[in-house]
Structures are given as structure tokens and as C-alpha cells.
Structure prediction request, 146 residues.
Amino acid sequence: MIATDMATLDALFQTAIAGISPRMTRAQDHGWTPYKKTRKGAHFTRAFRLDWTPREYVEDGIFTPAAVESEAVVSVVTDYRDAEEHVQFLVEDDKHQLRDTLNGLMGADNGMLWAEALPTEIEQDDEQGSVIVVHPFTIRYLRARA
Prediction:
């Protein structure tokens, strides 16, 4: 298994998430589309960005001369262009699709070990007419030693 870093995982996750075909859709839904801005509100459903919070190494994890098992929280911050009561089922189904997609990336060729879904946070943005959802996941991966 090769070691990696969060920048490499970020690119891998962006590509994988953008490739998801949603099982449930609504009006103004363009599938998963990455964006870089930090301002809330989007013009369509499933515009997303990734926010990373690194954590320390995993104490009982894998340690080799080249890598150490590490943990991070990645939040898939997603805009849904509709009222909260209309997107609740989308949000829940998307959480499961995101988890399955991230876990599908596990492999010896990228250092990804696993992803675990954490509780979803939902915030209504009345100014933009959208719902901002934070889908957080705990990620374990093999981090290259410096």
C-alpha cells in the first residue's frame, strides 16, 4: 500500500464525488459539481466543496518507515437549491452514496483506508433560497512521512 497526503486525497475525492449519479433528483439538479467559493448559496443543487480538518496519527494504526496511519475529517459542504422540507430525503440518500463512494476508493494504489459517516448538519439559507448541508466523514489513510 502506498502512502498519500490530503492534497492527493482531495483531488481523488473531488473527482469521485463529481462522478456520482444521484439516485434521487429535484428541480435545478445538475448532479455533483465542485466549487471553490466559501460563500454560502449556489445556483443549483449538489454544488459542493471539501473542507478538511487534519487529526493526528492513529495510535494503534499502521506504522512503517515510509508511512503512518492518520485520520482526518472531510466535510462535503453541499448546497441544495430548495427548502429543507423538500430535500430531506435527498440529503439522507446522498450521505449514503457519498459514504459508499468514499469507501469504494479504498485500495493499495492510493493510501485510502476507510471512511465513516458522521452526523449531518443542515442549515437553511433564506437569502439564497437554498439549504447548506455538511456531510462530514472521518477518513483514515496512510500519510507519507516527511
